[in-house]
Amino acid sequence: MHNPCAIVPVYNHETAVTTVVNALLACDLPCILVDDASGKTCAAVLDQLALRDKVHLIRLAANQGKGGAVMTGLREASRLGFSHALQVDADGQHDLQDVQTFIEQSSAHPDAVICGYPQYDASVPKGRLYARYLTHVMVWINTLSLQIRDSMCGFRVYPLPPVLALIDTAKIGRRMDFDSDILVRLAWRNQPMQWLPTKVHYPLDGVSHFRMFHDNVLISSMHTRLFFGMLLRSPRILWQRWRT
Length: 244
Hints:
Blueprint: E1 4-10, H1 17-26, E2 31-35, H2 40-49, E3 55-59, H3 65-79, E4 84-87, H4 99-108, E5 113-120, H5 126-143, E6 156-159, H6 160-167, H7 178-188, E7 193-200, H8 212-243
Parallel strand pairs: 1-2, 1-4, 2-3, 5-7
Antiparallel strand pairs: 4-6, 5-6
Helix pairs in contact: 3-6, 5-7, 5-8, 7-8
């Protein structure tokens, strides 16, 4: 049975999150909001949203980072009986007109991760855009494949059983390194993936929590760990590639 929900990690996005939730509910998609230790203003907005039907709120006592919040939401989605979860950022950068298309694709391919392939407008910071190309190359090296078209877009539908099996047995990045880390590790497990183009703009509320120095160091460290992990797994990865 295909029973999807949306997971929205939230950290001080009080201006945009209501618009995001409204769009998801308009698609009849239940929402799990994960408050990643936001300030009082955002917390109050989330409390009001949690009064709505089909909106669930989890509040973390200490900031866990985007990845930590998403993984908390994934576990809660499974506990509530959902089979799939659409990950959506709270800042309004994703084109939520594509939600129905992503859910339909997930229903047609329930074993696959449905991943957004971003189409950027002029609002994207050029430094972020160029850095993505380096990440693309590292991801292709670390998977020995060109399968992953974009590992950094956090607009994707996860089938919960294989994803929970991964996060319960592997140490996955808990901050801005999460999106790439989990896709590479799923690729190592031969997880099916589908790709859909989606428009992305930066961001609706003008707030970005990406820390240029700290998060780039974090992402670089992740790629290094994954590289050595790939070397250990390379015989099995190559064998899987040959068989398919």
